[in-house]
Amino acid sequence: MKDKATGNPELNLRRRKAVESFFKVLMFVSTTAVVLSLVLILVSILWKSLPALKLSMITKTPGSGYYLGKEGGILNAIIGSLELTLGATLIALLIALPVVIYLNTYLGKHSFLAETIRFSLDVLWGIPSIVYGAFGFLLMLFFQLRASLLAGMITVALVELPILSRAMDETIQLVPTELKEATYSLGANHWQTTTRVVLRQAFPGLVTAILIAVGRGLGDAASVLFTAGYTDRITTSWLQPVATLPLAIFFQLNSPFPEVQQRAYASAAVLTWLLLLISLIIRSLSRKFSRNKIR
Amino acid sequence: MAERGRLSLKNLSVYYGKNQVLKNVNLEIPEKKITVIIGPSGCGKTTLLKCLNRLLGEYEEVRIEGQVIVDGQNIYTPEVDVTQVRKKMGLLSQKPQVLPMSIYDNVAFGPRLFGLRHQPELERLVEKYLKLAGLWDEVKDRLYEPASRLSIGQQQRLCLARGLAVEPEIILGDEPTSALDPQSSRNVELQLLRLKQDYTILLVTHILRQAKRVADYLAFLYLGELVEFGPASQVFENPKDPRTRAYITGEIS
User: Fold this and answer.
1) What's the pLDDT tens digit per position in A146-181?
2) What is this structure's pTM?
3) For residue B51, which residues of chain A lie inside 8 Å, CB to CB?
């Protein structure tokens, strides 16, 4: 029953096995490359920062002559980044949440308005942050603000907004239709269904969306470059300039003194660890609140 | 109270785009009895149920003609508030959909929707309806656990309790036992038999034996048409239409 078209079955089998093995090896190499680069980044930053990793890095602000190699730390930038990102994320959330609720509750999935909004958000997500920085600068001039915490917050909020919106949107879309139907069948209106059931079901995904946005906001340099200014002190007022970790890294790396350059790597390490810490805290909180989620 | 639970369909036709799924259905559902709709898959049974609580227009491209009259009023007129219509109907889906909250919150969800906040009253209602659904004994010690941890049979009874808690007049069941094991199925059937004293029940099923066990009245739906309707014993023993006879004897399914 050997068909001319299928050819020799023995050869066929060996060829298929060879193709599979080839791709298996390729996939293994790619995975190794990815993991290796991650490890390389973390290790090299840690390595270069070793001499400068002292407790005073995170507990002191820059003393005079800090950028020439003298005493101090980056506490100003740590606190500044936290202040700025917290504020920016809150602003972004305040706008993103209503947009996402409206998109998923009152608009049909394929309505023209819904597709336009989603498309716009996708495009906004792709705009480089330096462009947001330039736009933020323009706003500052228009409102006669100086480089400050407030201006920085607004600009970073703009950066985070499309990310937050689209990530939350995708999560909410994953909530099964049958669950919504069951809720409607009980006599709930759109608003009640969304707030009491859909958002509850989507909660872990919403938290992940916030984490993604925070990650972007915390580490972004281009958007704060012209809008947040910089200072060696800890900022306590909206209208004062504020220090941020990405800029701290930038300025320290720029220095001709090797001790200061080492501090730049130490700052990078601090930034990385800070992000990790925030992620862990928020994830553990999220787990507590989602014990009731289905599936 | 005279008109509670009165349900009738007049010239009901439903179109999905160009496809006519229900063809001119005229049906008067008897009060406080169990009416079972049988028919082969794809004949429009689920569509018919979804028409009754106006769930159909939510997501798909549907056109509905005709009237669905509940308690003397056509529910498809613009003045009618759709949430009030749905409150009158309790829907049991094929696959139990528990809400992402505790067992207690699932049952209390309905009363809370309509403004009830008084704690002792809510507790009383939760216990009452869990008992009515035959689930109280199994969950009374773990009311605040997530509902998703229940077995599928228990989840379906929870959905029953939850649906009853909004105090409907009519219970709609879309093949409510087809996802359950025989023991849980039997459980749900027993609850429905007990409930028909107070509620009008409309059940859709493709299990003929189940229809035989619970039906007071039988309706046979075939390719979107209501072919026959009458008391269950009469339709089973003496079907008037040859198509009904063919389905009941198993020639077509």
Assistant:
1) 899 999 999 999 999 999 999 999 999 999 988 999
2) 0.81
3) none
